[in-house]
Design a protein that fits this description.
Elements lengths: L2 H11 L3 E4 L5 H13 L3 E5 L2 H11 L7 E3 L7 H12 L6 H7 L3 H10 L5 E4 L5 H12 L9 E7 L10 E5 L9 H17 L7 E5 L10 H16 L4 E6 L1 H5 L1 H7 L11 E3 L3 H13 L4 E7 L5 E3 L6 H16 L1
Parallel strand pairs: 1-2, 1-4, 2-3, 4-11, 6-9, 7-8, 7-9
Antiparallel strand pairs: 5-6, 5-10
The protein binds coenzyme A.
């Protein structure tokens, strides 16, 4: 069974309510209909019913039995506005502004998750990462003990000798452009958590990547990764984590043994932490486009799961992301 098939099976066993703020976006409507029909989650389409039904007609999707919530006429809007005002008044949000914001589908969906009226949220077929992530960071915030929200890419590689039978977790490839050493340490711990909870990897082995292995090069960039390793050890003393190391030392047993002898991770890493967003984003695309890997992206570190799509996503991508969000919500 592939990773995504395993995730779908887990989602079916613990049905979660997933808010879809782009409720009138045709691919999202088609995905909601499939998710409902296949019993993967309970989708909630956020938008005006007229627009949702128009999109459903256009693509021939059956939205019967799917809940549609309209922020413009929702009886919950007053409660959400009051809660949003309380949360954000110290940041200058006024009561009038909070009332206006909750009429927006994205804010409404984030408030649903924040108040426990939905278990998770998926968007991004029509919005940018920042459009969803900024309100999620402001309202849902981070998990206890977790300082940053970041992302993991679950990479299913054709070469099964790599990582965990071909499965590797990459972080961060979406959120933090230039993490500090402390932020990098939190990304590493968050990615290990994602490897365990979402991928079922019982023993995450985390490598913090660099162009240097164990002091082979000297540079401020290398020192930042070395410092991140020290902080990550303090944050998660039981986690198998090591660095700084080059990619080949992390993945290839002979190279790992020669460049980082005695390392519990070198040569057999299944979680790879990139030093910044440029290397992470480039790295996952190389693995996908040149290496032929399948990839699935999730956000980690939020107190409740919200996930982002690429605007070029397919219906299948949205269905998969809803299933992954449901599994994260069940953990
Ligand atoms: C994530 C992102 C949207 C945050 O944007 P931002 O301009 O820093 O947002 P803000 O400064 O308004 O921060 C919003 C709140 O979230 C917090 N925050 C920002 N980034 C955070 C993070 N990664 N983890 C936790 N909290 C974070 C801020 O402290 C702030 O809290 P506050 O308002 O209570 O003080 C921004 O970092 C971003 O756009 N990242 C790159 C996304 C991207 O383009 N990726 C490529 C896609 S492939």
């Amino acid at each position: 069974m592939s990773l995504i098939e395993r995730i779908r099976e887990r989602a079916k066993k613990n049905i979660k309510r997933i808010a879809l703020p782009e409720g009138d976006e045709p691919r999202t409507v088609a995905a909601a209909a499939r998710v409902k029909a296949e019993g993967l989650a309970e989708p909630v389409l956020i938008g005006s019913p007229e627009a949702v039904f128009a999109a459903a007609r256009e693509i021939g999707a059956d939205v019967g039995g799917i809940e549609i919530v309209d922020p413009a006429s929702s009886p919950k809007a007053g409660e959400y506005a009051a809660a949003l005002f309380e949360m954000r008044k110290a940041k200058g949000v006024t009561e009038a502004e909070a009332a206006r914001l909750v009429r927006d589908s994205m804010y409404y969906g984030i408030m649903m998750v924040s108040r426990g009226d939905a278990d998770g949220l998926v968007s991004g077929a029509a919005h940018t990462t920042g459009d969803m992530l900024r309100p999620a960071l402001q309202i849902i915030r981070t998990k206890p003990g977790m300082k940053v929200v970041s992302s993991s890419f679950l990479m299913e590689c054709p070469n099964h000798s790599l990582g965990e039978n071909g499965l590797l977790v990459y972080a961060d490839c979406v959120v933090m452009p230039c993490p500090t050493a402390e932020e990098l340490a939190h990304i590493a711990v968050g990615a290990a958590d994602t490897a365990r909870t979402l991928c079922g990897i019982e023993e995450p082995r985390v490598a913090l990547l660099s162009f240097s292995t164990k002091g082979s090069a000297r540079h401020a960039l290398v020192e930042k990764v070395q410092q991140a390793v020290r902080i990550a050890h303090e944050l998660a003393p039981d986690l198998l984590l090591d660095g700084e190391m080059q990619l080949d030392a992390a993945l290839v047993p002979e190279v790992g043994a020669s460049k980082a002898p005695g390392s519990p991770v070198a040569g057999r890493a299944n979680v790879l932490i990139f030093p910044d967003l440029q290397s992470g984003n480039i790295g996952y695309k190389i693995t996908q486009r040149i290496g032929g890997a399948q990839c699935f992206a999730v956000l980690q570190g939020l107190a409740k799961p919200c996930n982002d799509l690429s605007r070029g996503c397919s219906v299948e991508d949205i269905v998969n992301t809803i299933a992954m969000t449901a599994v994260q919500a069940g953990e």
